């Protein structure tokens, strides 16, 4: 029988990050690999209860995010050793049944930066993020590094909107950067691409593929895939292996977790070629994109 | 200093001010109308959320954009009716009822959205309002791009502010509303039905709030996200006070707040991390409190605000 | 009687168990002035509220000019030419006079207020009836008398042909009241018909053509003014013979309270200007004056709720600093505030709570309220002072004005205070209640209490006070003996005409 | 139609009203559940199970009720004196951040027996300070406090957000904006192991009784009520208005601050900006449901917690959108408020 998996989402599942998890889980369920139930918009206060409730219902694997409740989440896991927890976390795994994963799609961001660096005419690019937390910082820094790698002269602007959910505000932040000269925007937040679209400029998406949503605008995306992490976790649970480990690596480009998705022919051919070369290097392990979690300036 | 001047001198800033201000103008006018009749409507945050959801949903299901706004207005009116029923007919405590309406309207809109819109990644989009260039004016240097390249609801919001100012201060209806907010007993003695006036004002005000919310999904953005109203409703409550219950000043207040916000976004881009962004976000609240402290002595607060009116009770 | 412009037919109205109006019929002729008389709670306001459409009658109807008025619609009443000046003003203080007058007079759906035309019309009415007010003044800035005028203007502006005034003089000074009645008579000559409610028999006798008396919700009598007298009316109102008690001669005791050169400044305005008086045990000192001249401040000063800025206050011969309420009550000062609903009692609290609130130190131990003792105290007051309509746990709001006043008197007098500050103790009360209050004050005087009576009512002061001082614009006149006072002299004093020549310089 | 105040409330009515109100709310919620395609009767059963059906759900319900009791008391105390404190949310957060700051920066070394009481006082004090500002504005400039307390909520949360993003940021928090945790000695003892239920519940319940006694038995309680009902009358009766309101504000702000402190010390361990799912605002509704009666607040808080935790659990076991929990709570609050109204008033013609 498929194992029962619960997703607990602190945000509504529209949120790009959660939607990646949600989609992977839905797909897995559709394939019959798992049985999937979920809760969304679960506040920090309620999160541990949701974990406990699912655990008591006999759910075998709980997928979610520990960011706001790192300590309590580990307490819950200790109380329910029969249940496997694999949660997004910036921290470490704990015990046999508490595994973690990070969101490392910076490889794709770096590669997209390499395209953007060659495409910018104003020599200014911009990034719009939610709040300066490590994983957001890492992503934006990687994008900036990709830009600088091919175009050391380029200027990189950063803005944080102070919240995870305010697409209209992300759009305003994007417009502000365009007004400040940026002609390519990296949108860590949804809404950024709308600014680029409005001004007929190009934009880069993050986590999911935004190109279908903004066909003329988003030419590249730093994709993050959750499926490899999920599959690894499911495999461990089915095999009765402990899940108390760090699953982050499964999300790396090298492991097929993340990647760049881009529209061919938008960037100059030589830029695409250089980027593809770098991509191969990352895959082979010859190159590692720097992971800088300091707040980008 | 020159950075500040640079930013202020860019037309883009002023265009952003108008865009950011639009939902605030609409929400503030709505809250102001309610309060002028003596009813505090803390349901605004929830009503804006529902307006954003339902307006978008209507357009997503094939209605045109203006119909979307209309649907949002109607839904706002329905919640206004609920609030009026609780506060005007029953005379329940207005802030408690308002908080109840906010809790209900927002959670209800998420629930409805989740049932009706299957999620797959980011929510689906609609084709939102497009900016229109006002003929002639939009080609003026600086002023043109700054002020005359907005979407229609923005022009409508500004017009509504002026229209509401006119209605409140220049028409018999406005006088009836003001008198009901000052002293419903006096209004009744003049043959005005204070209950009806309050119902009307709360329903109409809430309709404006609904439209303010819908602006977010039909013009500022093109899909609905739960929690996307992000406290804009509360800002409106502050702005009403800041505006000392005058529509013209509400317009100015909303523009001023939007100026802070768009300035902040631009300043960050230039000098990131110099001032914590929270400071900028606090400013409108602190300014409103300061304005209250300065004005309260010349109290022009509607005197019957938050006082239930029951016929035949004194 | 000329043709009836108004016919109230068999109106009844019940509130809960209380039959407020019981089958009342009343008609009003063109140009006639009818006075409606009755005790507190007799149903006068209720009847007028039905006439004006605030209330829907249970049975009965109202006809104006022969046509039946739809019930419960103030708008219809206004249209039919009825204007009402309410017992409690209904004005919006933050709006201007013109706005208050205009509101509701135009169709709400007109796209523009006809302000210039309204201003012309209002000015015309002002001139015609000699009621001057500034149309653009904010109503909250006007004096009580001016606000009263605005109320009347509102009715006239609506082309009222029938004007109802509910206790219009309750808040007016004698002078203002006289002016008002002159205006009303002028209006009647112009063809307006008027109904006014009053507790003041003098006014009723002077102004009305016809007098209708209500008692317990029923119409008990109807008299032509020239065919009745005050004594008969008083008896009709309460259902038994009544006469106001009068002070008997006595010799005052030692001086218990003395003020020398006391000034009080509130919000930058000097409300009391160097006032002097002396109060002795067993006497009533009357302070008479037109309201707004500092009475309230004087009462507050002696009640311990405002401090003074200059001057000396001697209590039982000892100088006192800023008197607090606790000190005042502790020292045996009884206090009757001028507004019983605003200050005298807290309507939503129980009778027992109102009985002890100002003397909590006595009814508490270690910060805990001694409920038993407090309830017993309230019970004593209720019995001794004949407070009707409630027991100690009853909410005070349910008491009528007269009974509430008895409660306030009772809590102050039951312990035989040495000093009693009584501000407007009988204001707004019906004749029966007035008699009861006056009797209590005289009883206290007999028992040796020094009473400071602050009042606007000449008759009251002349009946009760041993000596009288007038207060005008914050200054106190020298006292005159009651024996040498008459209405003319007091009237002059209240207008500020007194002789300061032999004023002794302050000894202190 | 008009409403007439009931002077007497028959017992049957007092019992029937809340029952009817709950039924009404459940009926409405049932419609929404049915629309989601779930069997309604089973959903009702699941709400019960979710709220009381297991050790976990019962303890969770009580855990959620604890802060609601305190914020409810905070509102009830203030409203009774007609001090419209809508700022419970901000006071909650300030109490929380004060405790986190004090324990992590200053008092962390102290033994639990000393540290915990000190921290509780600190949390209360922070709440008090935040409420004294609008009170001062009211007493000094006659600024209406409804709006100022409401606005200060947002200022307080932003202030907390700023602190946990800078000086109080937890270096071990992996860069996430969260405060440094309270010291181990500051963690409140649990009432039951393997649960989140901590002694905060006992503290809250005891405070409810205490507040009840203060309000009904003491001179201060009577004066505070007088001040609320009729300030001019209270002044005339010798009630020191300013002092009374300041005391009321101290109790009210203190209770809300304490709620935040207990939540940090008993449940979360550190402060984030989503520490409170609107406890300050729910407290206002709880207080109104209880008709401002402190003992009623305990019941109303339990009721609110039962509805939320029950409906939340139901959504998970029935697989319907979890937003149904908030919808159910909102519906029951509105219908309960209406019910309480009809307990106090009757309809007459
Ligand atoms: N709104 C009301 N609800 C319930 N009872 C009322 C109401 N208004 C008046 N009453 C009752 O009707 C009776 C008549 O009240 P009304 O106000 O008409 O008296 P009144 O003659 O005007 O007295 P006063 O001289 O004191 O103004 C009162 O005794 C009271 O019990
Ligand atoms: N809204 C009401 N509901 C119930 N009873 C009322 C109401 N209004 C008035 N009453 C009752 O009507 C009676 C008379 O009240 P009223 O206020 O008219 O007294 P009053 O002597 O006129 O007072 P005042 O001297 O202040 O005018 C009292 O018994 C009072 O409790
Ligand atoms: Mg009356
Ligand atoms: Mg009266």
Description of the molecule:
The complex is a heterotetramer of chains A (297), B (314), C (508) and D (349). Chain A is of the alpha/beta class and 297 residues long. Helix content of chain A is 39%, strand content 20%. In chain A, the strands form two sheets. In chain A, strands 7-6-8-9-10-11 form a six-stranded mixed sheet, sandwiched between helices. Chain A has a five-stranded parallel sheet with strand order 2-1-3-4-5, with helices on both faces. Chain B has 13 helices and no strands. In chain B, helix 2 (11-36) runs antiparallel to helix 10. Chain B has a single domain (2-295), classed as ABC transporter involved in vitamin B12 uptake, BtuC (Orthogonal Bundle), CATH 1.10.3470. Chain C is α/β, with parallel strands linked by helices and 508 residues long. Chain C has two domains: 4-238, P-loop containing nucleotide triphosphate hydrolases (Rossmann fold); 254-495, Rossmann fold (3-Layer(aba) Sandwich), CATH 3.40.50.300. Chain C is 33% helix and 26% strand. In chain C, the strands form five sheets. In chain C, strands 13, 16, 19, 20, 21, 22 and 23 form a seven-stranded mixed sheet that branches. In chain C, helix 13 (371-384) crosses helix 14 (401-413). The longest helix of chain C is centred in the middle third of the chain and has 16 residues, at 174-189. In chain D, helix 1 (11-35) runs antiparallel to helix 13, helix 2 (40-52) crosses helix 3 and helix 4 crosses helix 11 (279-289). The longest helix of chain D is centred in the middle third of the chain and has 30 residues, at 112-141. In chain D, 63% of the residues are buried. The mean pLDDT of chain D is 93. Chains in contact: A-B, A-D, B-C, B-D, C-D. At the B-D interface, helix 5, helix 11 and helix 13 of B face helix 6, helix 11 and helix 13 of D. Chain C: Belongs to the ABC transporter superfamily.
């Amino acid at each position: 029988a498929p194992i029962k998996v619960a997703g607990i989402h602190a945000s509504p599942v529209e949120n790009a990050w959660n939607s990646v998890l949600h989609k992977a889980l839905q797909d897995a369920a559709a394939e019959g690999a798992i049985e999937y139930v979920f809760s969304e918009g679960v506040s920090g206060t309620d999160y541990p209860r949701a974990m406990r409730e699912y655990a008591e219902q006999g759910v075998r694997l709980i997928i979610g995010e520990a960011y706001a409740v790192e300590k309590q989440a580990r307490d819950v896991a200790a109380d329910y050793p029969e249940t496997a927890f694999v949660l997004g976390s910036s921290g470490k795994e704990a015990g046999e049944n508490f595994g973690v994963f990070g969101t490392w799609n910076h490889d794709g961001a770096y590669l997209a930066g390499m395209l953007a660096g060659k495409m910018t005419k104003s020599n200014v690019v911009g990034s719009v993020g939610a709040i300066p937390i490590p994983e957001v910082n890492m992503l934006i820094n990687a994008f900036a590094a990709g830009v600088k790698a091919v175009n050391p002269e380029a200027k990189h602007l950063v803005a944080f909107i102070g919240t995870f959910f305010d697409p209209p505000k992300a759009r305003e932040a994007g417009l502000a950067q365009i007004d400040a000269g940026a002609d390519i925007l990296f949108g860590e937040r949804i809404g950024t691409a709308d600014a680029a679209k409005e001004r007929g400029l190009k934009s880069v998406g993050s986590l999911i593929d935004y190109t279908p949503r903004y066909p003329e605008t988003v030419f590249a995306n730093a994709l993050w895939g959750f499926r490899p992490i999920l599959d690894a976790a499911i495999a461990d649970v089915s095999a009765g292996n402990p899940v108390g480990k760090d699953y982050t690596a499964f999300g790396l480009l090298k492991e097929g977790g993340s990647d760049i998705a881009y529209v061919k022919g938008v960037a100059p051919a030589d830029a695409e070629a250089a980027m593809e070369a770098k991509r191969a290097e990352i895959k082979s392990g010859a190159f590692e994109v720097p992971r800088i979690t300091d707040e980008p300036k | 200093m020159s950075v500040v001047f640079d930013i202020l001198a860019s037309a883009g800033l002023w265009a952003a001010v108008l865009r950011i201000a639009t939902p605030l103008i609409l929400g503030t006018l709505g809250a102001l109308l309610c309060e002028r009749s003596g009813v505090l409507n803390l349901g605004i945050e929830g009503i804006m959320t529902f307006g954003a959801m339902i307006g978008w949903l209507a357009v997503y299901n094939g209605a045109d954009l203006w119909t979307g706004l209309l649907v949002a207005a109607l839904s706002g009116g329905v919640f206004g009716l609920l609030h009026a029923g609780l506060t005007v007919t029953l005379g329940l405590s207005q802030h408690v009822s308002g908080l109840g309406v906010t809790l209900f309207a927002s959670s209800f809109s998420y629930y409805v959205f989740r049932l009706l819109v299957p999620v797959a990644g980011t929510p689906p989009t609609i084709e939102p309002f497009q900016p229109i260039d006002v003929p002639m004016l939009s080609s003026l240097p600086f002023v043109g791009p700054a002020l005359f390249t907005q979407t229609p609801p923005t022009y409508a919001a500004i017009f509504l502010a002026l229209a509401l100012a006119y209605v409140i201060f220049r028409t018999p209806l406005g006088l009836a509303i003001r008198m009901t907010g000052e002293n419903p007993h006096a209004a009744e003695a003049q043959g005005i039905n204070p209950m009806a006036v309050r119902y009307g004002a709360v329903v109409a005000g809430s309709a404006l709030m609904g439209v303010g919310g819908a602006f977010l999904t039909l013009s500022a953005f093109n899909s609905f996200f739960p929690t996307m109203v992000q406290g804009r409703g509360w800002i409106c409550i502050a702005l009403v006070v800041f505006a000392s219950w005058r529509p013209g000043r509400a317009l100015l207040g909303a523009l001023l707040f939007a100026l802070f916000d768009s300035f902040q976004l631009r300043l960050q881009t230039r000098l990131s991390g110099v001032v914590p962004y929270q400071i900028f976000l606090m400013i409108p609240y602190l300014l409103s409190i300061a304005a209250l402290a300065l004005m309260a002595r010349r109290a022009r607060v509607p005197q019957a605000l938050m006082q239930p009116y029951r016929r035949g009770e004194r | 009687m000329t043709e009836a412009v108004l016919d109230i037919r068999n109106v009844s109205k019940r509130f809960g168990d209380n039959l407020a109006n019981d089958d009342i019929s009343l008609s009003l002729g063109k140009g006639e002035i009818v006075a409606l008389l009755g005790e507190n709670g007799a149903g006068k306001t209720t009847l007028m509220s039905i006439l004006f459409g605030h209330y829907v009658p249970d049975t009965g109807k109202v006809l104006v000019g022969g046509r039946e008025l739809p019930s419960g619609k103030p708008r219809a009443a206004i249209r039919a030419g009825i204007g009402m000046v309410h017992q409690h003003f209904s004005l919006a203080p933050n709006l201007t006079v013109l706005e208050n007058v205009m509101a509701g007079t135009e169709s709400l759906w007109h796209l523009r207020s006809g302000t210039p035309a309204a201003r012309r019309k209002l000015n015309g009415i002002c001139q015609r009836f000699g009621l001057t007010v500034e149309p653009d003044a904010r109503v909250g800035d006007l004096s009580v008398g001016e606000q009263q005028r605005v109320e009347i203007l509102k009715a006239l502006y609506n082309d009222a042909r029938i004007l109802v005034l509910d206790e219009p003089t309750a808040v007016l000074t004698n002078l203002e009241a006289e002016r008002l009645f002159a205006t009303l008579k002028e209006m009647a000559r112009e063809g307006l018909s008027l109904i006014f409610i009053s507790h003041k028999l003098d006014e009723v006798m002077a102004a009305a053509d016809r007098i209708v008396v209500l008692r317990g919700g029923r119409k008990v009598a109807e008299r032509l003014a020239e065919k009745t007298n005050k004594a008969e009316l008083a008896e009709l109102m309460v259902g038994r013979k009544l006469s106001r008690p009068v002070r008997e001669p006595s010799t005052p005791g030692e001086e218990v309270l003395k003020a020398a050169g006391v000034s009080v400044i509130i919000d930058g305005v000097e409300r009391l200007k160097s006032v002097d008086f002396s109060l002795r045990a067993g006497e009533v000192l009357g302070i008479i004056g037109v309201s707004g001249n500092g009475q309230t401040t004087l009462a507050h000063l002696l009640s311990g709720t405002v401090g003074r800025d200059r001057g000396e206050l001697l209590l039982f011969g000892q100088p006192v600093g800023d008197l607090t309420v606790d000190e005042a009550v502790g020292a045996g000062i009884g206090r009757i505030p001028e507004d019983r609903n605003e200050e005298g009692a807290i309507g939503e609290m129980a009778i027992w709570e109102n009985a002890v609130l100002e003397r909590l130190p006595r009814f508490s131990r270690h910060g805990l309220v001694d409920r038993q003792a407090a309830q017993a105290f309230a019970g004593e007051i209720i019995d001794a002072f004949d407070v009707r309509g409630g027991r100690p746990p009853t909410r005070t709001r349910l008491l009528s004005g007269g009974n509430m006043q008895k409660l306030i008197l009772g809590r102050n007098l039951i312990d035989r205070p040495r000093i009693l500050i009584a501000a407007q103790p009988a204001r707004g009360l019906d004749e029966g209640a007035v008699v009861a209050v006056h009797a209590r004050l005289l009883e206290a005087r007999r028992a040796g209490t020094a009473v400071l009576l602050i009042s606007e009512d000449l008759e009251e002061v002349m009946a009760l006070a041993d000596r009288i001082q007038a207060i005008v614009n914050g200054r106190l006149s020298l006292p005159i003996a009651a024996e040498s006072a008459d209405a003319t002299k007091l009237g002059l004093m209240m207008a500020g005409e007194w002789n300061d020549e032999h004023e002794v310089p302050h000894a202190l | 139609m008009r409403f007439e105040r009931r002077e007497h409330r028959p017992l049957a009515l007092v019992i029937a009203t809340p029952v009817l109100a709950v039924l009404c709310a459940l009926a409405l919620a049932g419609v929404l559940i049915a629309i989601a395609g779930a069997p309604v009767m089973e959903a009702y059963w699941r709400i019960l199970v979710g709220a009381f059906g297991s050790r976990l759900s019962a303890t969770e319900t009580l855990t959620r009720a604890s802060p609601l009791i305190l914020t409810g008391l905070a509102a009830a105390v203030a409203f009774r004196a007609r001090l419209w404190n809508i700022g419970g949310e901000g006071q909650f957060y300030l109490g929380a951040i004060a405790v986190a700051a004090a324990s992590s920066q200053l008092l962390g070394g102290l033994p639990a027996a000393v540290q915990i009481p000190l921290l509780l006082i600190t949390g209360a004090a922070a709440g008090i300070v935040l409420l004294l500002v609008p009170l001062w504005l009211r007493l000094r400039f006659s600024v209406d406090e409804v709006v100022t307390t409401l606005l200060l909520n947002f200022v307080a949360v932003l202030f907390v957000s700023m602190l946990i993003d800078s000086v109080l940021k937890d270096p071990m928090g992996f860069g996430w904006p969260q405060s440094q945790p309270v010291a181990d000695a500051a963690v409140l003892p649990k009432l039951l192991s393997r649960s989140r239920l901590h002694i905060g519940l006992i503290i809250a319940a005891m405070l409810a009784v205490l507040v009840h006694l203060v309000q009904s038995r003491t001179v201060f309680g009577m004066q505070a009520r007088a001040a609320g009902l009729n300030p001019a009358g209270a002044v005339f009766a010798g009630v020191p208005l300013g002092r009374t309101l300041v005391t009321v504000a101290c109790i009210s702000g203190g209770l809300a601050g304490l709620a935040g402190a207990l939540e940090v010390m008993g449940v979360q361990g550190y402060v984030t900006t989503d520490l409170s799912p609107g406890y300050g605002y729910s407290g206002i509704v709880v207080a109104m449901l209880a008709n401002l009666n402190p003992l009623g607040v305990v019941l109303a808080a339990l009721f609110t917690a039962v509805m939320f935790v029950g409906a939340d659990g139901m959504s998970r076991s029935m697989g319907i959108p979890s937003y149904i929990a908030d919808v159910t709570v909102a519906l029951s609050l509105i219908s309960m408020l209406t019910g309480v109204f009809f307990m106090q008033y009757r309809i007459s013609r």
